[in-house]
Amino acid sequence: MRQSTSFRNVEQLSAYLDGQLKPSEKARLESRLQSDPELASILKDLRQTRGLLRQLPQRRAPRNFTLTPKMVGQKPSNGENMTAQPLTGIRILDLSRLLPGPYLTQLLGDLGAEVIKVETPLAGDHARLAPPEMGLGRMYETINQGKKSLALNYRNPRGRELFLKLAASADVVLEGFRPTIADKYGIGYQAVCAVRPDIVYCSLSGYGQEGPYQQRAGHDLNYLSIGGAFSLNGRPGEKPVPYGLPVADLSGGMLAAIAILGALVGRERSGQGMYLDIALFDGVISWMTPLALSAYFSGLDVSAGTHPLLGGRAFFNVYETSDGKYLTLAAIEPHFWGDFCKTVGRTDLIERQFDQTISTEIETIFKQRTRAEWLDLFAGNDACVEPVNSVKEMLADPQVQARGHVLMKSGKT
Amino acid sequence: MDELALITEAQRGNLDSFNTLILTYQDMLFNTALRIMGDEESAADATQEAFLSAFRAIKSYRGGSFKAWLLRTVTNACYDELRRQKRRPSIPLEPENDDGEEMETPRWLADPSLSPEAEAEADELEHAIQHCLEALPVEFRAVVVLSDLQGMDYKEVATAVRVPLGTIKSRLARARLRLRECLQGFWELLPPTFRLEGEILRT
C-alpha cells in the first residue's frame, strides 16, 4: 500500500465502490480522484479485487440439507398431514415420448419431483398430435400434468450444449430412444456423467440395450406376445385377444420408476449415481413370473384358460347374467367358496371347488338372474362376486369416488 | 406457494414448507460457508447446522430479507464451527509412502478430474483466492464474503454479523486491501483484465 494514502481514504474508496457514500462525500472524493493518480490507482486495485471475488464460481450444494422430523424433534407424520411430496427437490429431465416414459415421470412428479420434458421443437412428444380416433385423445394431458416443458434440439451442437448445461443441475435423466441413439446425439450416460457424475440415468427401451432384439421397433402388443403373456389372454382353442390395458408399457414404466427410486436412495447413501437399462419387455417377464412362470416350473400346463387363476377353474372366472351383463367370481379360499355356494343355494358344490366339470353348472346358475339382482343377493357376504364395470360405470362406482380418483368440476368429471 | 406463505407455514411447525425453503437457499448458504470455512466438509456441517438453527428460531423471524436472515444464521454457524475446531484441533493425516516417508504428491490426493489447461488455471486462481480469504481474520472474511460474494448491502451485512455499520465499512476496506496484497503473490494466475495496478507498476 502506498504510504502516503491514509486508511481513512481507503475506507472511503471502498465505500465509494459500493455506492455507500453520501452525495457530498461522493462529490468530494470524485474531485480528488481527478487530481490524485495514486488514489485513482488504489480505487482501480480495489475494484479489480472485488471483481475477482465476484467471479468465484458458485458451487452446487453437495447434498440436500432438508431436515427430517427426527432432526427437529417432531414425530414422524402418520400420513394425515403429509403433503406426500417426498421427491421435492429432485429434478428429472425427461426425453421420452408417448406412454411408458411420461407415465413413469408422472408417477415421480406426483411424488414431488420436478419433471422437465425436453422435446425437439418441431415434432415434440408425438402424443401431443395423436388423433383421438387412434384412441389416444387426451392421453398427453393425462400423463403430463404439472410438468415443465422445454423445446430444445439436442441433435445440434448448441442444443446439446444447452441440454448438458441443464443436465448438470439434474438428478435424473430419462431417455426412451432406441439403443445407441442417445450416445449418437452426445447426450448419453457418459456425456451426462461428465457434467453430473452422480446422475441417475435411465434408458427405457422396448427390448433393452443388449440382445438380438435391441434395435427392433415394437409396441405393447409385441412385447406381450414375445413375453408369453399374450398367449394366456383368451379361451382354450380361440385366438388370444389384446389386453384391455397397455400392460407392457405400464409395467415397464413402473419397473423403471422403482429402479430410479432405488438408485436415488442408493445415491443418498453412497454418493454414486447409476446407469439403468430397463426394457418394457422386462416388465412383462417380471409380471409373468409370480403366476404363469411359477406354475410352469411346478409342472402345470400354462396356456390360455388352463391355469386355475387365469380362467381354468369355475371358482375364479367371469359369468354372464340373464340381462347380458357380466360378473366376476373370485372365491379362492374355501370359506369364500362356501359363502358363494350357500348364497346360490347349492351347498352340494362346496366339496367340488376344484372340479373342472362344474363350470357349466355355475354358468347356468348365473344366467338365472340379472346382474343387479345377483349384486343385491351377494351384498354383505364374502363370496367375492363383483360387477364387470364399463368405464362409465367405473367412474360412478362408490369406491372409486370414495378414494378420490374422480374429481367433479363444474358438474363434469 | 410463495416464500412468505412457506415461511408462515414453517412458523406453524410445517417441516415440508421449511424444507422447500431449504432447497431454494441451500446452494447460497453452502457457498457462503465454503468461503468462510475453506473446506467442503466443514462447510456442509455448518450449512446443516444453520438450517437446523433456522428452523428452531423461525418464529423469531419478523419480516425483512429472509435471505439476509438465513445468511446471518449460517455466518453464526461458521463462527461456532471455527471455535469448535480451535478448541479441538484435528491432527491432519500426513501422507506417507511404504517406508514411512512423507510423500509430496501422493496418488490418493491427486485430483483425477484435472483436465484442460484453462480449467486447471481457473481452479488454481480459485484456490489462490480461497487461500487469501483464509488468511484474513474470520471477522473480516465473513464481511467480505457476505458483501462481495453474496451481494448483501452494508446494512444487511451489519445486521447479519451484528456490528455497527461503521465497523462494516472499516472491515470491508481492510479485507479488500489485504486480499489485494495477498493476490499480488499470485499475479501470474490473474486474468489480464484483473491484473492489479500494483503489479503493473512493479513490472
Summarize the structure in words.
The complex is a heterodimer of chains A (413) and B (203). With 413 residues, chain A is α/β, with parallel strands linked by helices. In chain A, 41% of the residues lie in helices and 10% in strands. In chain A, the strands form 2 sheets. Chain A has a 6-stranded parallel beta sheet with strand order 3-2-1-4-5-6, with helices on both faces. Chain A has a 3-stranded antiparallel beta sheet with strand order 7-8-9. The longest helix of chain A has 24 residues, at 247-270. With 203 residues, chain B is mainly α. Helix content of chain B is 67%, strand content 0%. Chain B is built from 9 helices and no strands.
What order do the helices and strands of chain B follow? HHHHHHHHH
- Provide mean pLDDT of chain B, rounded: 79
Give the DSSP E fraction of chain A (strand runs of 2 or more residues).
5-15%
Major β-sheet profile of chain B: none
Assembly state of the chains shown: heterodimer
Cross-sheet strand order for the largest sheet of chain A: 3-2-1-4-5-6
- End-to-end C-alpha gap of chain B: 57 Å
Rg over C-alpha atoms of chain A, rounded to the nearest angstrom = 33 Å
Which of globular, elongated, flat, extended, rod-shaped describes the shape of chain B?
globular
Rounded to the nearest angstrom, the distance between the terminal CA atoms of chain A is 76 Å
Number of helices of chain A: 17
For the largest interface in this structure, which chains are involved and how many residues does each contribute? A-B, 43 and 53 residues
Structural class of chain B: mainly alpha
Strand elements of chain B, count? 0
> How many H/I helices of chain B?
9
Fraction of helical residues of chain A: 40-55%
How many DSSP-defined strands of chain A?
9
Largest sheet of chain A: 6 strands, parallel
**Which structural class best describes the helix and strand composition of chain A?**
alpha/beta
Radius of gyration of chain B: 20 Å
Helical residue percent band of chain B: 55-70%
